[in-house]
Amino acid sequence: MQVQQRQMRQSPLLTSIVSVILGMLVGAVMMLVAGYNPIQAYIALFTSAFLMPYDIGETIRTITPLILTGLSVGLAFRTGLFNIGVEGQFIIGQLMSVIVALKLDLPPVVHVIVAVIAGAVGGALWAFLPGFLKATRGVHEVITTIMLNFIALYLANTLVRNWLSAGSDSTEKIPESASLRWDVLSSLFGNARIHLGLFLALAAAFVMYYLLWRTTWGFELRSVGFNPQASEYAGMSVKKNLVMSMMISGCFAGLGGATELLGTAEYLSIHGSHTGIGFDGIAVALLGANSPVGILLAASLFGILTYGGSVMQFEASVPYEVIRIVFAAIIFFVAANIVRWAGTKFRKKAVTKDA
Amino acid sequence: MGKQSWGILLLCALLVITAGCGTAGNQGGGNGEEGFSAGLVTDTGGLNDESFNQTAWEGMTRAKKELGADIKPLESKRDDDYIPNLTKFAREKRDIIWGIGFKFNKAIPDVAKQFPDQKFGIVDDSLGGNIPENVVAVTFKEEEGSFLMGVIAGSMTQSDKVGFIGGITSPLIKKFESGFRAGVKAVNPDAKVTVAYAESFTDVAKGRSLAANMYNGGTDIIFHAAGGVGKGLFDEVKTRKKGKYWAIGVDMDQSGLAPDHTLSSMVKRVDVAVFDIMKDIKENDQFPGGKEVQLGLKEGGVGLAENTDKHVPEKVMKKVEDYKQQIIDGKIEVPSTEKELKDFKG
């Protein structure tokens, strides 16, 4: 029994590792077919993500928002919700923080804190809508959050054009008082755009772990996700917990948007389509098996692949699209749960042999 | 946090260390003794955008052929990629690094400040006048070329309705719009110009639906200045009656997209501009740093596609030539903003 339990616990890690390896194999095959040398490409990819302090800084910068959007999706999954609206909540986070950064005149440290909080609150409120609709009207959150993604995108575009900038396609740069960059940190990494958002992301991972597994409230949230009827019967308020999970999830996503804007871009421009960071969060959560540590690792892997992938294009002239294929293949293998399938086959064979 | 988590962390640390230790292979790629090297970073449109990224790259390949330059492109997938991409080239100490498109107007000054010994070039933006000493800003008088497109459209429309599809609303695209509308007004004051913005440079489907709406509304000639969105216009016009519905391309000769439906294209010689500046650096060691290089009809920076006379009758061509000369001579001041357009008498 104990052995079986341990196997059950190990399986997400095993699934993830095997899926990553298989995904990279698929990418290698693609490269071979297209006439590139996969070994050279992968070496270029991984070494260049860490080549110089600058690259390490930029890799970490790429990882940071993926951690937050991954946590956002992961937390929602844990509480029985499928939050596809991370992208929209991310954009609202960016929007709120850029508004605070540009329109309010505050002293240095206070300014950035208020801007970050505004982003997180904006994301939470944007996620409140689908949560509320699901709780009161039973509208499925997948539908509402997808729609809200588009509303967020075009709302941000409209505000940037008509209010935040004078008819141009992007806002001014935010003042230094609202920036999340820290000179000491940047100079350590060769002036890369690494920023304090990293520590907020790590803190958020701890918050998710502590909240869900170390508090009664977190137990309620998870329990509502597992079985709403039983939770209701046990005296928990399903509706309240549902709305709250959605808002915490949105808060993480909004925080991701805020830190990305205040740390990395430092301005908001009009986007023709979604940034994709929110959607990558779904992949991160899936690969990380919705656990905080898993999400940290998965976000690191995807961040390395994303940043290293663009350098790989530079060093080995392999097109960046190959990296997206690797992404997709990894997700495919995780979702299809190849490992368990192979495991059961193998075990069956072993059993028949024994008999 | 059980034993397992520690195991994972250890594994991760190991991965980072081994990857970090991997020797940094070829860092070079830089310039040899006499060699000249150049790097080009595209905006999110990519190298094959049938637009200014592609023409800029043509200028680079010409530099490879004629100057023996070592050239390399980097495509940006997101706005966040601009700075790392420029930095990669700067670290290689390439002789000049191009950022193509006005979207680079925040990244170029940042990177130029960090690498004061490197030369940079930006196309389509004047950086609000604050051009660092190691940066050259190349801009075009798009309104002048667009004016000639307006002359063609205004003279050839049967329905007195012509259309304009813009990319993202911005001062740059407004230059195209103003010039085009002024050109139409000059030759055909009765014609109505329908204007629509896709608010994207990549959304092909949006371009197609905007074009379809305009054609359905009676418009017979549409000019676009919308990057990749314009492909949608050509997809749409191809399905319509030959000789009645027309499209006008932008940035490069786009007649290949719909040979029987393309009247002309407003070509923007990004290739010439990029090549000339590189040639000056290589052969004369001259670099117009800190300056804005403005190219119009007079400098040959903008103009008509060469095969324009294929579908445009000689009478109209003559008119176009006439207006072109007047602009070059300074007799016509083409408006470049909406405000100037209002005051334009034609």
TrEMBL record, chain A:
The keyword Transmembrane helix applies. It is a multi-pass membrane protein. Keywords: Cell membrane, Membrane, Transmembrane, Transmembrane helix. This is Nucleoside ABC transporter membrane protein. Signal peptide: none annotated. The chain crosses the membrane at residues 12-33, 39-56, 63-86, 106-129, 141-160, 194-213, 282-305, 325-343. The keyword Membrane applies. GO terms for cellular component: plasma membrane. PANTHER family: ABC TRANSPORTER, PERMEASE PROTEIN, GUANOSINE ABC TRANSPORTER PERMEASE PROTEIN NUPP. It holds the Pfam family BPD_transp_2.
UniProtKB/TrEMBL annotation, chain B:
The keyword Lyase does not apply. Pfam families: Bmp (PF02608). Gene3D superfamilies: 3.40.50.2300. It is a lipid-anchor. Residues 40-337 form the ABC transporter substrate-binding protein PnrA-like domain. It comes from the Bacteria. It is found in: Cell membrane. GO terms for cellular component: plasma membrane. Its main location: membrane. Keywords: Cell membrane, Lipoprotein, Membrane, Signal. Belongs to the BMP lipoprotein family. This is Nucleoside-binding protein. It comes from Melghirimyces profundicolus.
